[in-house]
Automatic annotation (TrEMBL):
Record EC number: 3.5.4.10
GO molecular function: IMP cyclohydrolase activity
Leading EC class: hydrolase
HAMAP family (alphabetical): IMP_cyclohydrol (MF_00705)
Function: Catalyzes the cyclization of 5-formylamidoimidazole-4-carboxamide ribonucleotide to IMP.
InterPro entries documented for this protein: IMP_cyclohydrolase, IMP_cyclohydrolase-like, IMP_cyclohydrolase-like_sf
Alphabetic keyword roster: Hydrolase, Purine biosynthesis
Name of the protein: IMP cyclohydrolase
Any Gene Ontology biological process: 'de novo' IMP biosynthetic process
Length: 196
């Protein structure tokens, strides 16, 4: 089954996977502590604005709480910035997803995102017909296609690297690359798996 890009978040852990039929020549890179999806050196040139973006960012709230934001596009940055300014995770997801809306491509691709804290997580999606944002207390998945409403997901990983590898190996079509995040009282750990 092809469900496109997807996010899984739960308290203390999260992951994001790029699945793509159109732009498979992409990799995750660490750019000064932020994980970024972008084309490989051999990828065909494109002017598609949805191919490169920050997919995982560590942040800290005004009270010093460490959090991670994961998602499938340019909305990751405004969500992170709002949470850093003190917005509750649910509100940061809702306002940013609503403001940027679904992607204006041939498929009206939904925007998906999650915010992971040590003890709490929130997940959201904006699609042509709905905006869904909720707090979750167990690993929860939302994808751009087929599974585009939050649903429980059995994520067994306990660290960022294994979270990225686990979602990359998940039984969904066209895996490309993945990012993982863990959050505890000591901070945020990020990792990625490009399947190499």
């Amino acid at each position: 089954m092809y469900i496109g890009r997807f996010v899984v978040v739960g308290p203390g852990i999260g992951a994001y996977r790029v699945s793509s039929r159109s732009f498979p020549n992409r990799r995750v890179r660490d750019r000064d502590g932020t994980l970024t999806v972008g084309p490989t050196p051999d990828a065909p040139e494109t002017d598609n604005p949805y191919v490169s973006y920050n997919c995982a960012r560590p942040i800290e709230t005004p009270t010093g709480e460490p959090l991670a934001v994961l998602g499938n596009g340019s909305h990751v940055d405004p969500i992170a910035e709002k949470v850093e300014r003190g917005y509750p995770a649910r509100d940061a997801l809702a306002t940013s997803l609503l403001a940027l809306d679904f992607e204006k491509d041939d498929y009206d691709t939904p925007r998906i995102a999650g915010v992971v804290g040590a003890d709490r997580a929130a997940i959201g999606v904006v699609r042509r017909d709905a905006l869904l944002v909720e707090y979750v207390d167990a690993p929860t998945l939302v994808a751009t296609y087929e599974r585009n409403a939050p649903e429980p997901y059995d994520l067994e990983a306990t660290d960022a690297g294994s979270a990225a590898s686990e979602v990359l190996a998940a039984d969904f079509e066209h895996p490309v690359c993945a990012a993982g995040a863990t959050v505890d009282a000591d901070g945020v750990s990020l990792a990625f798996d490009n399947g190499e």
